[in-house]
Design goal:
With about 110 residues, the protein is of the alpha+beta class. It has one domain. About 30% of the residues lie in helices and about 35% in strands. The chain contains 4 helices and 5 strands. It has a 5-stranded mixed β-sheet with strand order 2-1-4-5-3.
Length: about 110
């Protein structure tokens, strides 16, 4: 899989009405560290779709939104309260989404 572009939105919100005010960062795959490129290039990454985490976990809410565009397809997912969610749920999908979000957040 060849990565084309990554779109990443992260921030603290009080309601879902505030999602549009968050800035979308366009990240060039060439600027990513090798370990993050490897994680993003795994076939299981394309299976990440939908919503992860605890939407009702806290107010304000920590929010991450990821769009990964590649030559084999695109995937899009969002994560609510990733830190808190890891305490209560440890699914492989959430762990992978968590690692991706943390890696992308370091790039900002």
């Amino acid at each position: 899989m060849t990565l084309i572009t990554i779109k990443y939105k992260v921030g603290i919100i009080h309601s879902t009405h505030e999602l549009d005010r968050l800035v979308t960062h366009h990240i060039c795959p060439d600027s990513l560290p090798d370990d993050l490129v490897d994680l993003l290039s795994q076939p299981s990454t394309l299976a990440l779709k939908g919503t992860y985490g605890m939407r009702e976990g806290a107010i304000p809410t920590e929010y991450d939104h990821v769009v990964i565009e590649s030559d084999t397809g695109n995937t899009e997912f969002e994560v609510y309260n990733k830190g808190m969610s890891m305490i209560f749920e440890t699914s492989e999908s959430l762990i992978q989404a968590f690692k991706i979000c943390l890696g992308l957040q370091k790039m900002l």
